[in-house]
């Protein structure tokens, strides 16, 4: 981090145009750029699309400016340096104007903020402010009981993480070591930050069991059911320790680890599934139990509605569904929740593929069969290892290797559709193409008989009839879910 107040990049541009007069109204034209908006742009934390990573830093600068203007200046200076690293040539839309306006503000605020500095160095000033912020805004709210205080604590952890990032950059630029006490505090903040994350309705982190909404019996029943991960084959790098019991992992975390879904998608669909189950559970079981347990009738009702279209798709094509239940009664509920969670996670990352219901059914049909193979412990005769997703289970692999290739095909199809074709007919064209996915898309979503291919013979998806060949399922010890069940 260079010395504050000096230019770190050659951001040559003409002076920003003056702000529009009040007589022209508050409506902004599309031709106006960030440089035309003056300093209000930093107060609203609006940044160019290529510089979204600096938005939290500008938010913290606005938040602490009233308390310590020098710390706010250092945050903006660090944001400027980070913006220059993200886009050194200022080639992004509005980046040059944004960096010019921010640099001009930094030049104006450097000397005034120096006068109000308590310590003689910016490094010591940042360390002092970080300690005070942690004591005032985090320690005082750690034992909060209501939702409002918890929201403030979540925000405080995020702000503290940004302040430490700026603190570390300032200390490196001035060759000052960070105190060990601050490093220990930062480690605590990082641990809590992983738990206190933003949420929509339900705070599902382990620290929120005392929240009022989490005390409802129907919510507790759904959460406890999802956290039953007994018997699941976790990956080696995420396997539980022998003596570890309460890890906070649930069935959707296992699906994420095995199929490579996005973290935020898992969080959203976890809350979605809990609310679906809780709403039906309270209608099926109006009486409150001391030890809430998810009602099987409520689970079947949600599952029947969720897979209604998939069942019709299988029936229309004359295919057996990929939903198979174990004969052990204690594992039935877990298996149903895994099937439901997998469908919601696929839907959550499908983007515009949601407008192609046959495509969603096709993807789910094969991934559900892969799920069955992993739970049954099937071994691939080609690799000698346990069955894994055909596209691999790396981080965000589903989005990169399944959704994106199909979406690119849709983009090409869209270019071929005449503009005069009505919207409803255009969607029918997409569904027609979804029936030809094995021939159009260079992606494997788990063809059921892929392990039966002879060694040395490369099997192409184009050789497979839609929606993929099916191999004979074992009847024992598994049984297929009947149409009357879900």
Write structural notes for this entry.
The chain has a two-stranded antiparallel sheet with strand order 1-2. Helix 5 runs antiparallel to helix 6 (147-173). Helix content is 51%, strand content 1%. With 486 residues, the protein is mainly α. The chain contains 17 helices and two strands. It folds into two domains: 30-195, Serine Threonine Protein Phosphatase 5, Tetratricopeptide repeat; 208-453 and 460-480, no CATH class.
Features:
mainly alpha, 2 domains, two-stranded antiparallel sheet, 17 helices, disordered N terminus, transmembrane, cell shape
Quick gist of this model?
It is found in: Cell membrane; Membrane. The protein is an all-alpha fold and 486 residues long.
Task: Give the uncertain stretches in residue-range form.
Answer: 3-41, 240-246, 432-436, 438-443, 447-486
Number of helices, where a helix is a run of at least 4 consecutive DSSP H or I residues: 17
Largest sheet: 2 strands, antiparallel
Please state the average pLDDT score.
Answer: 76
Give the overall shape, derived from the CA principal axes.
Answer: globular
Rounded to the nearest angstrom, the distance between the terminal CA atoms is: 60 Å
**Total domain modules:** 2
- Share of helix among residues? 40-55%
Q: What is the chain-wise order of helices and strands? A: HHHHHHHHHHHHEHHHHHE
Radius of gyration: 28 Å
Number of strands: 2
- Beta fraction of the residues? under 5%
Strand order of the largest sheet: 1-2
User: Would you tell me the structural class of the helices and strands?
Assistant: mainly alpha
């Amino acid at each position: 981090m260079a010395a504050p107040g000096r230019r770190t990049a050659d951001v040559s541009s003409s002076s920003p145009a003056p702000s529009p007069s009040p007589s022209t109204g508050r409506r902004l034209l599309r031709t106006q750029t960030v440089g035309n908006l003056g300093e209000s742009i930093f107060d609203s934390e609006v940044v160019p699309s290529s510089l979204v990573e600096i938005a939290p830093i500008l938010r913290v600068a606005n938040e602490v400016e009233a308390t310590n203007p020098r710390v706010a200046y250092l945050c903006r200076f660090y944001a400027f340096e980070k913006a220059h690293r993200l886009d050194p040539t200022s080639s992004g839309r509005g980046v040059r104007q944004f960096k010019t306006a921010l640099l001009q503000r930094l030049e104006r605020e450097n000397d005034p903020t120096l006068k109000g500095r308590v310590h003689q160095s910016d490094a010591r000033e940042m360390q002092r402010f970080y300690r005070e912020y942690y004591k005032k805004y985090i320690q005082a709210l750690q034992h909060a009981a209501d939702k409002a205080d918890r929201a403030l604590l979540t925000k405080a952890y995020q702000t503290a993480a940004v302040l430490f990032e700026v603190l570390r950059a300032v200390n490196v630029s001035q060759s000052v070591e960070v105190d060990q006490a601050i490093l220990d505090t930062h480690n605590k903040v990082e641990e809590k930050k992983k738990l206190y994350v933003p949420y929509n309705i339900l705070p599902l982190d382990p620290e929120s069991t005392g929240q009022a909404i989490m005390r409802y019996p129907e919510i507790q029943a759904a959460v406890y059911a999802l956290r039953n991960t007994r018997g699941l084959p976790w990956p080696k790098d995420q396997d539980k320790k022998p003596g570890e019991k309460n890890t906070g992992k649930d069935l959707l975390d296992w699906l994420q680890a095995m199929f490579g879904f996005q973290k935020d998608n898992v969080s959203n669909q976890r809350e979605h599934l809990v609310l679906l189950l809780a709403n039906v559970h309270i209608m099926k079981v109006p009486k409150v139990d001391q030890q809430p347990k998810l009602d099987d009738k409520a689970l079947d009702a949600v599952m029947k509605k969720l897979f209604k279209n998939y069942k019709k798709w299988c029936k229309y094509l004359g295919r057996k569904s990929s939903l198979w239940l174990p004969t052990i009664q204690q594992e039935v509920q877990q298996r149903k929740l895994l099937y439901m969670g997998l469908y919601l996670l696929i839907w959550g990352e499908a983007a515009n593929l949601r407008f192609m219901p046959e495509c969603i059914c096709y993807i789910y049909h094969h991934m559900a069969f892969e799920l069955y193979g992993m739970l049954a412990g099937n071994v691939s005769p080609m690799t000698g290892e346990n069955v894994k997703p055909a596209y691999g289970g790396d981080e965000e692999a589903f989005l990169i290797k399944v959704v994106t290739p199909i979406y690119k095909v849709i983009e090409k199809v869209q270019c071929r559709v005449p503009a005069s074709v009505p919207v409803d007919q255009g969607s029918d064209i997409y569904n027609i193409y979804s029936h030809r996915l094995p021939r159009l898309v260079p992606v494997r979503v788990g063809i059921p008989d892929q392990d039966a291919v002879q060694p040395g013979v490369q099997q192409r998806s184009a050789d497979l009839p839609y929606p993929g060949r099916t191999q004979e399922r074992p009847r024992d010890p598994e049984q297929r879910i009947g149409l009357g069940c879900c």
